[in-house]
Q: What sequence folds into this?
């Protein structure tokens, strides 16, 4: 049985923020959220988060009934942090220690550590760094790991060692419980070092086996905004490479941001600077222009979304044409062959096949039939200051430009509304309805002229 401990009590002073470090977001998700996902993906029987700085903000942000939270009120080192959680762990499990501020470790790099621990040894994840400053160094004798020495406690010779401790390790929980009680804090930082268990393992003839991650960035931690930005780029690059591998055309893989999950069909093309949030699905042949933001959207095949279009919580049908500069808000469903043009906002509306809203309009709380044509500057007045009301526009209606539809209201099938109409009562099917003062000309009328002020 595997149990996972995530250490997340640290303050993260260098973030210069009131938010606990592990709640800062990478790809739209808290750092700790990434580590929790990794723990779940490894099939942990229990995942225990040790939190401290920021108080209840951490458990509140990550609330999940599969997680156990343990408070480390004062931070006296990584060994002390582990000790707080040990009563939660069962004696016959294997414990894997992860860090809430190390978000990008892949499960493939952790599984060998777990297997090592299950086989009775201690698995330690290490990397070789050209500049190992600050890290704990892996001390070996005759090739075998004998202990870890922290940078601040290391001699010049030890500081020359380039193999460093990532902090990530796995071992049988019953060993861990025994060794943690033996830790002392007589070191340069006056802390209880988890790393001191390595020497205790060696003493007790538990062999220490090191493993390396596939990529060094998998074990990078976040201590500053600069490091957070660096890891964000690494992560986005990984996502972009995955999309390219899946056959997606990215006009520039360095200029796409996926903050969630983006699933693409065949022959999808994505121009630069697009942001995808939450769950986004783009079916075969979808094209997304530059600078679009799509959040929780499903787009059906062969739809083209032009530049600067924002879509939030909506279902977009097949062969639509959206944008440039369209805004589709939550609760909207567009059927087939719908056209939405520039400066058009649609909210909580269902638009049926072949309807077109091409210019400068607001359509809210509306049910629109097939082949409707909405003229430029049309507004559904859905809000009376207190309540929202629906507008129903039946099939094949033609709405002239600059029309206001004061909801609740229904425009019957095939009706035509004259330009400039303010519709306050239902318009009958098949007829022309308009509300317009008769045009008249006052011949001989003169514009007022500015009067000279008396001196
Ligand atoms: C630790 C390791 C070091 C390793 C390095 C890798 C120890 C003693 N040293 O050093 O060998 O090279 O990580 O980055 O383990 N934490 C708590 N409670 C505490 C102290 C720390 O939850 O009381 C958490 C922090 O939030 C952080 C992690 O443990 O996520 C590591 O703590 P930190 O103080 O940064 O360890 P390092 O000194 O970097
Ligand atoms: Ca420290």
A:
């Amino acid at each position: 049985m595997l149990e996972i401990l995530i250490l997340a009590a640290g303050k993260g002073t260098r973030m210069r923020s009131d938010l606990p470090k592990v709640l800062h977001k990478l790809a739209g998700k808290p750092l700790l959220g990434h580590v929790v996902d990794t723990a779940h993906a490894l099939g942990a029987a229990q995942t225990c988060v040790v939190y401290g700085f920021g108080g209840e903000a951490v458990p509140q942000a990550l609330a999940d009934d599969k997680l156990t939270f343990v408070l480390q009120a004062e931070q006296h080192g990584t060994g002390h942090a582990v000790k707080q959680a040990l009563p939660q762990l069962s004696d016959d499990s294997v414990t894997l220690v992860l860090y809430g501020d190390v978000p990008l470790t892949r499960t493939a790099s952790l599984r060998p550590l777990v297997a090592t621990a299950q086989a009775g040894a201690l698995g330690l994840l290490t990397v070789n760094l050209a500049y190992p400053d600050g890290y704990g160094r892996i001390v070996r004798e005759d090739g075998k790991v004998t202990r870890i020495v922290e940078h601040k406690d290391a001699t010049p010779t030890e500081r020359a060692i380039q193999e460093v401790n990532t902090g990530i390790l796995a071992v049988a929980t019953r060993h861990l419980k025994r060794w943690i009680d033996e830790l002392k804090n007589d070191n340069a930082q006056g802390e209880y070092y988890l790393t001191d268990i390595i020497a205790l393992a060696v003493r007790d003839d538990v062999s220490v086996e090191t493993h390396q991650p596939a990529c060094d960035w998998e074990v990078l931690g976040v201590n500053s905004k600069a490091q957070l930005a660096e890891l964000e780029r690494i992560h986005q690059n990984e996502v972009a490479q995955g999309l390219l591998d899946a056959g997606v055309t990215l006009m520039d893989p360095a200029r796409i941001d996926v903050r969630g999950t983006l699933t693409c069909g065949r022959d999808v093309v994505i121009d630069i600077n697009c942001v995808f949030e939450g769950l986004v699905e783009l079916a075969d042949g979808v094209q997304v222009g530059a600078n679009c933001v799509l959040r929780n959207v499903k787009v059906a095949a062969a739809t083209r979304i032009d530049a600067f279009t924002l879509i939030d919580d909506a279902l977009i049908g097949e062969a639509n044409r959206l944008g440039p500069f369209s805004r589709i808000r939550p609760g909207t469903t567009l059927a087939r062959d719908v056209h939405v043009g520039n400066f058009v906002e649609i909210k909580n509306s269902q638009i049926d096949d072949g309807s077109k809203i091409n210019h400068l309009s607001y359509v809210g709380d509306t049910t629109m039939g097939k082949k409707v044509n909405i003229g430029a500057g049309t507004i559904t007045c859905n809000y009376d200051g207190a309540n929202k009301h629906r507008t129903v526009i039946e099939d094949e209606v033609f709405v002239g430009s600059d029309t206001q539809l004061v909801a609740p209201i229904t425009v019957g099938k095939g009706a035509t509304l004259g330009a400039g109409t303010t519709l306050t009562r239902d318009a009958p099917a098949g007829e022309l309805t308009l509300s317009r003062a008769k045009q008249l000309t006052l011949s001989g009328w003169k514009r007022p002229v500015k009067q000279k002020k008396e001196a």
